[in-house]
Amino acid sequence: MTHKHIRRFQIEGEFLSDAEIPLTRANYEVALCKDMRYHGFVPILDISSAWSTRYVADKDRWFFKLTIHGIYLGKKRALECEGILGGSQLPRDIQKTT
Asked: Does residue 96 fall inside a structural domain?
């Protein structure tokens, strides 16, 4: 699992209150990882996600940017893998429904 191309996935947005920061970040990390898997990528767990915020007083709004780095495994394998850690794939614990 070495020498693969790393792709940066980003999402930007805004929210009204700084009290929303923890929930907003968690929700967008989940959403961005789902989008990555849909496109056949999984997160590289060795590289922490990047989260930045800034407050614009004249608009009374907070703006954020979230970045997660991923590696392409293919759509099927991406659904079976939690991410890449130390160059190895970590399997996902998926409950199969009957």
From this structure: no
- Identity at 48, one-letter amino acid code: S
Domain annotation covers residue 25:
yes
Instruction: Check pLDDT > 80 for residue 12.
Output: yes
Q: What is the tens place of the pLDDT at every residue in 25-78?
A: 889 999 999 999 999 999 999 999 999 999 999 999 999 999 999 999 999 999
Asked whether residue 57 is assigned to any structural domain, the reply reads yes
CB atoms within 10 A of CB 70: 26
Both structure tokens of 38: 């849909």
Domain that includes residue 53, residue range: 6-91
Q: The tokens of 40 are what?
A: 């056949």
- Answer yes or no: is 98 within a domain: no
Model pTM?
0.83
